[in-house]
Amino acid sequence: MVAHRLSETARLLAQLVAHHARGQPGWPTSASAAAPTPSATSPSTPAAQVLAKNDSAPSPWSKLGYMVDGDQVQVLTSPAGFYEQLKTNIRNARRHIVLSALYIGPQEHDLIQTIHDSLAANPSTKCTILIDYLRGTRGASSNSVTVLAPLISAFPDRVNVALYHTPELTGWKKRLIPPRFNETVGLLHFKLFATDDQLIISGANLSHDYFTNRQDRYMHIADARVARHYARVVEAVADVSFRVRVPEQKNAEGGYELLAPTPYSPVDAPREYKRHAHARLAPALVVESGSGEVVEKVRDTLIVPAVQASPLGVYQEQDLMAGVWAGLKQAADAQREKSDWNVYFTSGYFNMTPLTMNTMLGLNRPVNVLTASPQANGFFGSKGVSKYIPDAYTWLESRFLARVRGTTQPIVLAEYARPGWTFHAKGLWISPVASRLPWLTVIGSSNFGHRSMHRDVEAQAIVVTTNKRLQEELRDEVDALWAPSKVVEEKELEARRVHWLTKVVAYATQNMF
């Protein structure tokens, strides 16, 4: 495997991750202070310099993202809690409501009514909703757009509903690949919900099961700069997406029209569209100037935004995650005989990229992997070819365990198996073995798989924290996710007898899921 060449930003993140992985306290006062030295454990050396509680020096880490007060970050643990917080944020919005997900369930009238009521009560509030074109228009008579159409009709000058269409689905692909199957080409996969100074970043879509019995992850961040950053990203993608128009005379099919983005359409002029979309999105990815303000004692948490939009030439998540893995590898190589921190990794759709798998398996640290059991897979019981998808993931799990067989590194694979629930959580946590209080987590829409890196448009947050309350919430989150799980071994997976044709198709199409 060819090593990923790190950008300057990713190298800086790697230094910070290595600092924390080595168990050094607090925040280094400079990037050089984060680098390892022969006497790094001595408190009198530059490598151990950290910000004192009342230090007013600017933080070098604000180049990566946003230093925030960890007490303003909350881990939400349940679908119902996520939904209630989302509605509360919408009700309290006074300036803008910016929501982005793969789709909105066609029966989510309660959510739409909440948005309607907020807009009616606050005439200056504007609303942008960004979803995926293919998923959002699936089903001609009842889909995401039809449920949103009344909102557009009620507030035509204040509600913008945009549908991102991948520029990879053009020509013969657009004409010949049928609905649902065409979604394998690429999707808008954001799960970002920004309202004024509040942000919820998640892996959950906006539909009934995600509000009731489909387990995911959710982080509520009450910081104006962070909320603005992700809102800018959503607005940028919305600007290069199809726009929904509801004419006064509803003679269009479904009661709405889809207006192609200008000056280029992703369907008719994909090359020009990619260049234009990249130019529009790139400035929105830049960390807000002025976020490098003095670091006060309450600024103990770093939020690093990470967007991946390979079709648009944006590889921020890929680059920054390579920095995370490089920092962990650096710390692990410096202390090969220690087993001082754990890796917790989860994905509802288990299909690691080579970089993720190879690095994780070379850390010489305990690794705990969690994925969905066949019954907790969202495709379990589906009709058509989709019903074979859980079997395909079983086969990928088998390949993973075969890969780790014979290694001395303690690696445990478990499956989420909560009766009546499905599993959609994804993320990474790094925590000391002794305290089990994570100092790093990665949360967002990415499943860390092939399609997340190469096909879809994703948004993540890499969170580094020394805030004990937040660390305790992250520990509790890990415990809650793993609690209804069951460790699986190779023999059990083999006993499921995945059909040889499923294996062949899964191997041939593994970069599509």
TrEMBL record:
Functions in the biosynthesis of the anionic phospholipids phosphatidylglycerol and cardiolipin. SUPFAM superfamilies: Phospholipase D/nuclease. The keyword Secreted does not apply. One of its GO terms (biological process) is cardiolipin biosynthetic process. This is CDP-diacylglycerol--glycerol-3-phosphate 3-phosphatidyltransferase. It is an enzyme of class 2 (transferase). InterPro entries: PGS1, PLipase_D/transphosphatidylase. Belongs to the CDP-alcohol phosphatidyltransferase class-II family. GO terms for molecular function: ATP binding; CDP-diacylglycerol-glycerol-3-phosphate 3-phosphatidyltransferase activity. Residues 23-46 are annotated as: Disordered. Pathway: Phospholipid metabolism; phosphatidylglycerol biosynthesis; phosphatidylglycerol from CDP-diacylglycerol: step 1/2. It is found in: Mitochondrion. It catalyses: a CDP-1,2-diacyl-sn-glycerol + sn-glycerol 3-phosphate = a 1,2-diacyl-sn-glycero-3-phospho-(1'-sn-glycero-3'-phosphate) + CMP + H(+). Residues 184-210 form the PLD phosphodiesterase domain. Keywords: ATP-binding, Lipid biosynthesis, Lipid metabolism, Mitochondrion, Nucleotide-binding, Phospholipid biosynthesis, Phospholipid metabolism, Repeat, Transferase. It comes from Allomyces macrogynus (strain ATCC 38327) (Allomyces javanicus var. macrogynus). Its EC number is 2.7.8.5. One of its GO terms (cellular component) is mitochondrion. Residues 28-46 have a biased composition (Low complexity).
